[in-house]
Hints:
Protein name: T9SS type A sorting domain-containing protein
Keywords: Signal
Largest sheet: 7 strands, antiparallel
Strand content: over 45%
Pfam families: Por_Secre_tail
Radius of gyration: 28 Å
Number of helices: 2
Amino acid sequence: MKKIYLTMSVALFAITGFSQNLSIKDNQSKNAHRLVETAKKAVTNNGAEKATYLQENFDTWPLTGWVIQNGPASTVTNPTQTWHQYATGNPGSSAGILYVNSVDVHDQELISPAVVLPAGGSYRVAFDFSTSVYWHATTLGGLYDNADITLRVTTDDGATWSNILWQEDSIPLLDASYSNGWETYVWKRAYVNVSSFAGQTIKAKFTYKGQDAAQFSLDNVSIEDIPANDLAIRNGWAGDIVNAYDYSKVPVGHTVPVVAGLSIANLGALAQNDVKVALDIELSGSVVYTDTLLADIPVGSVDTFWFTTTYNPTAIGDYTVKFSIPTDEVPGDEQRDVALSTTANTYANDFGSTNIYRFDQDDKTSMGVLYEIKSNTFMTDIQVDFETGTTENNEVAIEVFQVGANIQDLIYVSDYIYNVETAVIGNGLTTIPLDAPLALTAGERYVILVTKYEGPSRVFLGGSPEGDADNSTVCYGPFGSGDAVNYYIGWGFTPAIRAILNPSASVTNVAGLEGVKVYPNPSEGVINVSNDTNVENTIVVTDIAGKVVATKVASTATTIDLGNFGTGIYLVEVANQNGKKVERVVIK
């Protein structure tokens, strides 16, 4: 079985297998050059010195002092099947093992130079890694466990080796090294405690052992002191806590009060008490909401903290949700920003959140995203980011599904409520108009899927054009295996498949009301309703959620002040004996 090195997310449900044969497209930058350093000293905030006893970033090859060798079970012959310099690292180069075939058995060892750990100290082996959950970790939702990558140490120059200290699919060892929750081909850092070897000379050994598995990359290996004080923000997001995913762009009328959470890891040797955790929400650079909490974080723990606010971002503009904790002895990971924009009509869920993959009876792959609808509206267009790399037959099918309250209901969905086939129009964010506005119901959830349905070619879908333009995922054409429909849901990279909403899209204005005008649009708050015919008009103004905010009866020109109801979109309905018209007005 061949392997595709896709930038896919963690699979949470078992799915049918599929063939793979491409190299991954890695979005890590390549702009640094670092060499092996021994006993590098760094001054901490409290004046003590933190030592780094080994530092290797694999930017220079052959390696100095490292040993690359086949273990006793290895049958590999291709140089890329053993440890070699791989062009894409985090950043720069990395040490990597690539998939070549499903026959050879891997038993590939990468052994560090000897390092002396002084007596009485606390030490850790730290490193970055990137690999595939799908082929390596059934414990994390993958389909296969075809290889294991392990870390051991020796204190007798390789005569004997310790028990396994880290393994890519061992949940207890991942928890202990702060590396649980890693995603397919997304760099993750691990910290493995080796304090029990204090006072001894050690070597570290990374082993890739298995058959018919996938690529593994290793970078930024260090053996170092554990600092007394080292807190790190592990993740952060802003959105709806009930569904645990965030939207990067939300139309006015579909926003909710911000519930924001972040995980903080205590990587240091001391407990951290009364840590001040701050949340700031900014709109176009100005703070519009701020909050703080105090947190106790024991040694070795990763705790999640939540801010439940009443702040509902209804003004159209770009928001930034900022998390921060005090800077400590290892600066650089104490802040995290999450982008969120409120828009007039664009709904975007492509900042790395919930995504859906489908394999159907023709073995075609589909990529999709999920949207929650907060008020009755209409979808008029769909935007898809078609990235450079699209080849051959460029036809895709775009389908819209309505799903239940539980995201796992996607497994049973088979009937779409909208379908259109279209040619890919160049590269970049492409707007595809629907044949007719599609009614969406408040409180319901919808999935938009893009499927490659012609030939063996593929279509690359990009991530958020604003924040992740260099990443991509792939829709494949049919392979002809005849598999049944299968869905699975993951977290991580999400393609840019956006919904364009317009709550008044289906309103038809009656020709008999030519003498009625609503202006200005947009407005600072006061709107004018003209009436050239002096016929009595009933005026009803609703917000985008359908709530009536103002009513008025007038037979002459009149004004309505909406300034007290906040910025956003309002629908102004004017009705008389000749019919009615509805105007969509933006209050800014």
